[in-house]
Each structure stands twice: as C-alpha cells, then as structure tokens.
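Exercise 3.2. Students should predict the tertiary structure of the chain below and write it as structure tokens, then compare their answer with the key that follows.

Predict this chain's 3D structure.
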Amino acid sequence: MLSANGTGGYTMHIIAIRAISDADEFWSACKQGHAQLPKGARGVLAVASTDGIRGINLLVGASLAAVKEFFDPLIGPFSTTEYFEADAANAVGLPS
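Answer key:
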C-alpha cells in the first residue's frame, strides 16, 4: 500500500523478512547494499534476531520489484527472503 508522503506524492514501504544461512556473509552484503541503494530508495531498518538466523529490513521509496532486483544478487546466496508491500493504512509508526 502507498501512503501520502506530505509532498503530494506517495511513498511505498517494502518489508523483507529473511531466513539467514550465513550471518557474517549476509550482514556484510546487507550493509554493502544499504550503502548503495538505488536512487529514491531509503533504508529505514535492518535488524537481526539475537541468534542471527532471521532478519527484517524496511525500505522506503522503491518498488517491491526494484528492491528485490537490487538485493537478491547481493544476499541471495546467504538467505531466503520474503518481500511484501506494507499496508500503510493499517500500520502504526511507518516513516514517510
């Protein structure tokens, strides 16, 4: 779902839930990716479980297809990822 961004446009929120097979390699690649996000995309959250085998990312401003196309080659060898658009109308605390 898209939410109003305060400038007359809309913002897409993409959530990625990751099952991580190699935490060290995954987080190294994830940090590299967040430092080089495509134009218009902004990384808001990247967090792991305490055991390092699950992670969640929240990205704002890019389409689901763009996020998946960008991140899958980087982190695909180290995780399995489920991507989805957040339901901004029913969410609490999503950034704009």
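Discussion points: The chain has one domain: 10-87. Residues 10-87 form a domain with the Alpha-Beta Plaits fold (CATH 3.30.70.100).
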